[in-house]
Amino acid sequence: KALVREDSLWAGLEVVESIGSTNSELADRAREGVAEAGSVLVAEEQTAGKGRLDRVWTAPPRSGLFFSVLLRPEPPVSRWGWLPLLAGVAVAGALARAAGVDMGLKWPNDVLTVTGGEERKVGGLLAERVGEDMVVLGIGLNVTLRTEELPVPTAGSLALAGAQGVDRDPLLRAVLRGLEDWYGRWTASDGDPTGSTLLEAYAAGCVTLGRTVRVELPGGDELVGEAVAVDGDGRLVVASEQGVQQPVAAGDIVHLRP
Ligand code: BT5
Predict the structure, then answer these.
(1) What is the DSSP letter of 79?
(2) Are 166 and 158 in contact (CB under 8 A)?
(3) For ligand 1, is residue 160 a contact (CB within 6 Å)?
(4) HSE-up (13 A, CA, CB side) for residue 70
(5) Residue 101 contacts residue 93 (beta carbons within 8 Å)
(6) pLDDT tens, the chain, 258 aa long
(7) How far is the CA of 165 from the centre of ligand 1 (A)?
(8) Would the CB of 20 count as within 6 Å of ligand 1?
(9) How many Å lie between the centroid of ligand 1 and the Cα of residue 183?
(10) Whose CA is nearest to atom 27 of ligand 1?
(11) Phi, psi values for residue 248, rounded to 5°
């Protein structure tokens, strides 16, 4: 059985044994004109997996899913901040169904397992613009990682959250189906999630909203306040104690209080 339906958004799916970064490779191919929108590149191992900024994504070979999809989004660029968020909705939904584990989304790009009130990062999303009109969306998920294999103390895996015998292959299909579904809805609303099921699904799964947070901004500045909303462009709206609302487009969040 084909891994991807013929009528699906995903034009082609390639699995490679080992690669530096699926995001970098797919972006290179897109720039060279040898990859089209809908391409999916999966690696059994990444030797130079990337996070945001100059951070790394590390995981033992075959311990999870490491893949990227190439998209040519139709909605205006200003809305593209929603891409990692909608990917999070798709991933969390697929993982919750496949593994029976409670999932949470930490704005902007972390997928967490929530077990006994403890949150651990099991997935990371990385959206990178390629040229004028394309985006490579990378997804890394920890599936079978054991405690002694965790790259950082805050990491977790589906197995550690209690999921038994989760196969990566059906998981990948489920994530791709979910991604196609939510990407379709987002496209249909021209990228405006306001009032759509996407915004509702994101708000329902997001563990950042409603919390007091410290935002570490890319320039080094910090902001403390309550995370009150995510806006139409995917920005986290943080309200200060004085009630001033500030939309944040990029940054790292530390959850301070429930
Ligand atoms: C991310 O960045 O979380 C985005 C990760 C995206 C990875 C995928 S894998 C397929 C595709 N190809 C790539 O090269 N990348 C994408 P960020 O929010 O910056 O978080 C990075 C931080 O997460 C690191 O600094 C570590 O603290 C932590 N980390 C690294 N590896 C991890 C892992 N396996 N599990 C949990 N946390 C990890």
Answers:
(1) G
(2) yes
(3) no
(4) 28
(5) no
(6) 455 556 678 878 999 999 999 999 999 999 999 999 999 999 999 999 999 998 999 999 999 999 999 999 999 999 999 999 999 999 999 999 988 999 999 999 999 999 988 999 999 999 999 999 999 999 999 999 999 999 999 999 999 999 988 899 999 999 999 999 999 999 999 999 886 899 999 999 999 999 999 999 999 999 999 999 999 999 999 999 998 999 999 999 999 976
(7) 23
(8) no
(9) 22
(10) 152
(11) -115, 125
Could you tell me if the CB of 55 is within 6 A of ligand 1? yes
pTM of the model: 0.95
Q: Hey, is 193 helix, strand or coil? A: coil
Domains of the chain: 12-205 (3.30.930.10), 212-257 (2.30.30.100)
DSSP annotation string for 136-171: EEEEEEESS--GGG-SSTTB--TTTTT--S--HHHH
Probe residue for ligand 1, chosen from 24, 50, 52, 57 as the CB with the greatest number of ligand atoms within 8 Å: 57
> Which run of H or of E encompasses 43?
strand 39-46
Nearest atom in ligand 1 to 108's CA: 18
